[in-house]
Amino acid sequence: MDFVSIRVITEDVARLVGFYERVTGASAAWSTEDFAELALGSATLAIAGIRTVPLFGPGTAQARANRSSIVEFLVDDVDALHAALDGQVDGFVNAPTTMPWGNRSLLLRDPDGNLVNLFTPVTPAARAKFGR
């Protein structure tokens, strides 16, 4: 089995895609006005509009309701990215902070309130884990 993507349901696909394009520097591939994907290394971030929810079953997903998952991106230099995003995005939860497990993390919220973690491994163990 391969983990290939995560899909975020939103009421405003263009706004959320724009946010993730600014944060990642990637360009989205649009399939329809209700569905776009950002291919990022080994996984894809799919963003879909609420009109797609009935395809899976009525009420199976709800926009702006996540309070348990964090979308995470491995980045080369979280401090430099923080400086570049300052003034470009709202919703910073914290400044870059070195976590006990060896990653330097910047936590922010996307426009729908989903938590996003941008991180750089900084300890030898964390760098080895991610081949850095």
Defining key terms:
3 helices; Signal recognition particle alu RNA binding heterodimer, srp9/1; four-stranded mixed beta sheet; 132 residues; 2,3-Dihydroxybiphenyl 1,2-Dioxygenase, domain 1
Question: Your description of this structure?
Answer:
- With 132 residues, this protein is an alpha/beta fold.
- The protein folds into two domains: 1-65, Signal recognition particle alu RNA binding heterodimer, srp9/1 (2-Layer Sandwich), CATH 3.30.720; 66-132, Roll (2,3-Dihydroxybiphenyl 1,2-Dioxygenase, domain 1), CATH 3.10.180.
- 20% of the residues lie in helices and 33% in strands.
- It contains three helices and eight strands, in the order E-H-E-E-E-E-H-E-E-E-H.
- It has helices at residues 13-24, 78-85, 124-129, and strands at 5-10, 29-32, 35-40, 43-49, 70-74, 97-98, 103-109, 115-121.
- The strands form two sheets. Strands 1-4-3-2 form a four-stranded mixed sheet, with helices on one face. Strands 5-8-7-6 form a four-stranded mixed sheet.
- The longest helix has 12 residues, at 13-24.
- The protein is globular, with a radius of gyration of 15 Å.
- 22% of the residues are buried.
- The model has no long low-confidence stretch (mean pLDDT 96).
Order of the strands making up the biggest sheet: 1-4-3-2
- Beta content: 25-35%
Mean pLDDT: 96
Q: For the record, what CATH class of the largest domain applies?
A: Alpha Beta
- Please tally the β strands and state the result: 8
Distance between termini?
Answer: 25 Å
Unreliable segments of 5+ consecutive residues: none
Alpha-beta classification: alpha/beta
Q: From the 3D coordinates, which CATH architecture of the largest domain would you assign?
A: Roll
- Number of separate structural domains: 2
Radius of gyration: 15 Å
Shape: globular
CATH homolog superfamily of the largest domain: 2,3-Dihydroxybiphenyl 1,2-Dioxygenase, domain 1
Largest sheet: 4 strands, mixed
Fold-level CATH name of the largest domain: 2,3-Dihydroxybiphenyl 1,2-Dioxygenase, domain 1
Q: What is the number of helices?
A: 3
- Helix and strand run: EHEEEEHEEEH
Helical fraction equals 10-25%
